[in-house]
Inverse folding.
């Protein structure tokens, strides 16, 4: 009997879209009798876990598109990966298909320089969490389509079908917008605040992937490490977290993926 592959999917997810895809990929591999772990990559970036070289036959890396590139936390994560021979697949999620979320050329190159070999790449269209209104029918449709696409990706990966997303000069140029976002996130980090509905439950403190939120002087303090993943706002049970400058662009009600 052929030995099952050992696979681990490391992902970053702010409001849940990328985690949803990671779980669908895990389900697909498990249905094919492969062993598959799933781990939020901030476990690595926050120093709570270490990448175990040689433990997995295949590694999946997933992130949500931020301003036509990977968020800073994903790039920081790559810098922590070992220089070794490792097969991997890459996937990203976004609320629209514009330029396929930008080029992943720089990410591929950094990983290649570490000895990592790309086997497959995929893009998943998911419900948008900014600049839009909640549409339950669209959410259900996109989640279902992502599930089917994940199942197809698993089949392609296990069959050894190498597929890459488009990458051209325009897309690589578009990656530059991410620098503006990274800078803006730091400058706007202190503009987050919790209103009087805050119960001080501490959920946002625990869930922040960069350790940006803490309790100080009896209230929440937001430092300068925000990457605008929206996880604190998304998970607040009292809907108490707001942004002084960008509130207009954020969803007023959160959606739940099926």
């Amino acid at each position: 009997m052929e030995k099952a592959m050992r696979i681990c999917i490391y992902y970053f997810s702010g409001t849940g879209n990328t985690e949803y895809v990671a779980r669908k990929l895990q389900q697909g591999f498990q249905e094919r009798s492969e062993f598959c772990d799933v781990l939020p990559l901030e476990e690595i970036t926050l120093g709570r876990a270490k990448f175990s070289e040689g433990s997995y036959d295949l590694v999946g890396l997933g992130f949500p598109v931020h301003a036509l590139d990977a968020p800073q936390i994903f790039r920081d994560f790559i810098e922590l990966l070992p220089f070794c021979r490792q097969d991997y697949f890459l996937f990203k999620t976004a609320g629209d298909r514009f330029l396929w979320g930008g080029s992943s050329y720089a990410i591929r190159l950094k990983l290649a320089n570490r000895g990592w070999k790309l086997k497959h790449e995929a893009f998943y269209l998911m419900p948008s969490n900014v600049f839009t209104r909640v549409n339950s029918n669209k959410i259900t449709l996109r989640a279902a389509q992502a599930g089917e696409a994940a199942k197809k990706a698993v089949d392609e990966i296990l069959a050894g079908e190498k597929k890459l997303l488009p990458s051209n000069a325009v897309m690589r140029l578009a990656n530059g917008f991410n620098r503006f976002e990274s800078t803006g996130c730091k400058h706007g980090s202190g503009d987050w605040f919790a209103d009087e509905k805050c119960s001080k439950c501490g959920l946002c403190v625990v869930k922040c992937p960069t350790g940006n939120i803490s309790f100080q002087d009896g209230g929440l303090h937001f430092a300068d490490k925000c990457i605008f993943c929206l996880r604190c706002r998304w998970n607040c049970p009292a809907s108490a977290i707001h942004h002084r400058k960008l509130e207009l662009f954020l969803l007023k009600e959160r959606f739940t993926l099926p």
Q: What stands out?
A: The CA atoms of residues 200 and 217 lie 12 Å apart. The first helix runs from residue 17 to 31. The mean pLDDT is 93. The first strand starts at residue 6 and ends at 11.
